[in-house]
Amino acid sequence: MATGTLYNKVWNAHAVTTLPTGQTQLFIGLHMIHEVTSPQAFDMLRERGLKVAYPQRTFATMDHIVPTLSQSRPFGDSQAELMMQAIEKNTKEFGVPFFNFETGKQGVVHIIGPELGLTQPGMTIACGDSHTSTHGAFGTLAFGIGTSQVRDVLATQCLAMDPLKVRRIEINGQLRPGVTPKDVALFIINRLGVKGGIGFAYEYAGEVFDSMTMEGRMTVCNMSIEGGARAGYVNPDQTTFDYLKGREYSPKGAEWDAAVETWKGFASDSDAQYDEVVVFDAQDIEPMVTWGITPGQSVGISQALPDPAAMPQGGERTSTELAYQHMKLKPGQKTTDIAIDVAFIGSCTNGRIEDLRAAAEVVKGRKVAEGVHAFVVPGSMQVRKQAMEEGLHRVFQEAGFEWRAAGCSMCLAMNPDQLKGDQISASSSNRNFIGRQGSPSGRTLLMSPAMVAAAAVTGKVTDVRDLDPVQGVA
Ligand SMILES: CC(C)[C@H](C(=O)O)[C@@H](O)C(=O)O
Ligand code: SF4
């Protein structure tokens, strides 16, 4: 059992009791909700005549179904309009703050929590969404939950949870130029497998994380769930505190100093005991690209696609063969030979300002390749505003990208932004499952925002480090 870890400290600080099932009843400090997994939970509350126990610890937004072109009401999609109306009604009736378009703070749930300073070190956080692990970047224990658990948290502010083991993933050394947090996330999943994290919380540590920005840490924690982990976190440090200072919901004045002292106390001790420790060398990581139908089916940009015939019979070989069938790619093929149809920059993995800056940097002075449909969907209204203040929208538009409104968009295509037929996308999102981007035969290549930008301007998967400099661009 892990001791002296952040996991351990945050868990114990929030444990209410041990339930007869052996599970821990855990108090949840922050509950974020969105339109997809909350309507039935509110209905169940209504059926039982219950209230939201802590409306001041509950915050709502809408992200999955929002159209990114016209947002005039009623929405063109009547299903989406109904979901919007449901969350409007539920938040009003139950007294839950709702970050809708009018507030200027709407966005993907995992982007707005940190951006508003709602996400704070040492917290337990829950949201009816698997990528809640994102908030672990702040030294929180953040869990994605299902709709019946959303009901439980609404009604009691508690969850019944099984304890986790802790695996420390330490990456030492410095990342090579052009290698980003997204590449780190894909590398970890490639090495440990999409199921490798089952039963674990991942603690990300080592020089790479020490020097990573908060947005980068969010990208890596976001994808913990794609590696099977229940949660993922980075210990809070000065980078964390600097990010949170002055945010809307961050503590102010004397409360700020007291909060920082408390937050520091949640970090893992230097002599903490882990259930497992895995160590990687930063130099071994290169820009990564997925070629298959799970986020673990990836290669470094310089490597050829793997050969299933070289794998032992069984699970991995079968899923590799299945992936080749769906992706219409060939073992041994170079990733840089794969042409793309669509370039999507956005999502809770890579829809933050640093992601847009990194992509714009590549796009500046270049043009989207002929036949490629490229678009940028900022992760939140605030990210969008910031990007426009920096003129990034113009960089994208001049290159031929579309500049859209904030939401989940083509990350999972619950809105009109969908692949057609067997189109292939270069996508900065987190899942490449069959049908994920709206078309059953659609194909998704996951990569960093800079790599998506490089693919958009060349029309095929490209090592962003190989692009020739653009004349006249500083
Ligand atoms: C719609 C929602 C329940 C889902 C999730 O839980 O992750 C979505 O956000 C996703 O990324 O697949
Ligand atoms: S951006 Fe994608 S992964 Fe994130 S919450 Fe939305 S659909 Fe899920």
TrEMBL record:
Please provide the Gene Ontology terms (biological process) for this protein: L-leucine biosynthetic process
One GO molecular-function annotation for this sequence? 4 iron, 4 sulfur cluster binding
Query: What EC number is given for this enzyme?
Result: 4.2.1.33
Q: Does the keyword Transmembrane apply?
A: no
Q: Name one Pfam family in it.
A: Aconitase
Give the cofactor binding note. Answer: Binds 1 [4Fe-4S] cluster per subunit.
Residues forming the Aconitase/3-isopropylmalate dehydratase large subunit alpha/beta/alpha domain are: 8-459
Q: Quote the record's binding site residues for [4Fe-4S] cluster.
A: 348, 408, 411
Question: What cofactors does the UniProt entry give for this protein?
Answer: [4Fe-4S] cluster
**Which reactions does this protein catalyse?**
(2R,3S)-3-isopropylmalate = (2S)-2-isopropylmalate
The protein's superkingdom reads: Bacteria
Keywords (A to Z) from UniProt: 4Fe-4S, Amino-acid biosynthesis, Branched-chain amino acid biosynthesis, Iron, Iron-sulfur, Isomerase, Leucine biosynthesis, Lyase, Metal-binding
Q: In which pathway does it act?
A: Amino-acid biosynthesis; L-leucine biosynthesis; L-leucine from 3-methyl-2-oxobutanoate: step 2/4
> Which Gene3D superfamilies did the record assign?
Aconitase, domain 3
Describe the function of this protein.
Catalyzes the isomerization between 2-isopropylmalate and 3-isopropylmalate, via the formation of 2-isopropylmaleate.
> Which family does this protein fall into?
Belongs to the aconitase/IPM isomerase family. LeuC type 1 subfamily.
Q: How does it assemble?
A: Heterodimer of LeuC and LeuD.
Q: Give the matching HAMAP family.
A: LeuC_type1
Please identify the protein, giving its name as recorded: 3-isopropylmalate dehydratase large subunit
Q: What is the lineage of its organism?
A: Bacteria, Pseudomonadati, Spirochaetota, Spirochaetia, Spirochaetales
Q: Which gene name does the record give?
A: leuC
